[in-house]
Amino acid sequence: MTNQIAPVARPKVLVVDDIAANRELLEGHLDDLGYRVLQAKDGIEALEAVAAEEPDLILLDIDMPRLDGIAVCEQLKAHPLRRLIPIVILTASNDRDTKLRGIAAGADDYLSKPFDPKELLIRTKVLLRQRALNERLDATEGVLHALARAVEARDRHTIHHAERVGRYAEAIGAARGLTAEDCELLYQGGVLHDLGKIAIPDAILLKPGPLTTAEFTKMRSHSVEGERICLSLRSVAHYLPIIRHHHERVDGAGYPDHLAGADIPIGARITAIADSWDAMVSDRPYRAGLAEDEALRRLRQGSGTQWDAGLAHVFIDLLDGGLMQRVTRTQLAAIA
Ligand SMILES: [Fe+2]
Ligand SMILES: [Fe+2]
Fold it and tell me: Which ligand is nearest to the CA of 282?
């Protein structure tokens, strides 16, 4: 019996080099350092090896037949999950140009040939620790998403609501020219916006009739509850304003803080539109969903009072361009 909760696995390092002698040399060093070594002799083999068994670190030569190291690096860094695998470029010590091309392609570090075993040890250790932290961060987000799905699972009326809100919010952000990172945040924030409903009892959340004043107050606490749940999680700090403020109104009549106009963080202003739209056109326990024409009329009517007029305008243009059909279609495809 061991005293550890999780067994300590030997980190897997993939060595990619077209020269067998270089691979063997590195394998010898890495083996001494306690790593498990996988080998590939060109870029194609490297991508195949990563697909078959994800390594914790890649040591990557640049000049190789079939597919060179720069192309491998670019492909892996463009992949949503594999981009977290640290990549170390292997170069001749005087080859500044290759180092720079490697860094431009997203490499995390470089190592000069001939290798100094001590340097190899320190660089691999640092990157592997970084990798472990990234994985934990990833896991935190995974847990939150699971919680968001748990909220939805309680109420068949809101199934996939959060996912759609995320997609709408992301589309508004892109149309407004926000960066790819901000759009990603809008998506994540959209998925998590109603997380606080986990703290609302079924008797209120699923009540088929109108809520009493006390029940309504409780229901409204979900935005603050959601923020409270996520407060200690550093990795979601950027979404907190979306979670807390997605029910604010630009005229100041929303909750929880009665913020008005541009005082409402832009992510929350965007999410408010995405959320309201999806709520209007979906069935709820106490009413059927509105027809699109009617929802659109209300959106126009409330723009400038409930919602940011400029952002509502952007959203209406996106709806005209078929956004709603696209979002629901991708969602159906994902479920099938
Ligand atoms: Fe909400
Ligand atoms: Fe919502």
Answer: 2
**What SS3 string covers 154-200?**
CCHHHCCHHHHHHHHHHHHHHHCCCCHHHHHHHHHHHHHCCHHHHHC
Exposed / middle / buried, residue 153 (Cβ in 10 Å: 0-12, 13-18, 19+) = exposed
Report residue 320 as tokens: 């005209």
Query: Which tokens sit at 117?
Result: 């075993």
CA 140 to ligand 2 center in whole angstroms: 21
Domains of the chain with CATH codes: 12-134 (3.40.50.2300), 154-335 (1.10.3210.10)
Q: How far is the CA of 320 from the centre of ligand 2 (A)?
A: 22
Distances from the Cα of 206 to the Cαs of 148, 209, 284, in angstroms?
A: 16, 9, 9
Is residue 323 within 8 Å of residue 171, measured between CB atoms? yes
pLDDT digits (tens, 9 = 90+) for 202-242: 899 888 888 999 999 999 999 999 999 888 777 778 889 99
The predicted-structure confidence for 52-87, as pLDDT tens digits, reads as follows 999 999 999 998 989 999 999 999 998 877 888 999
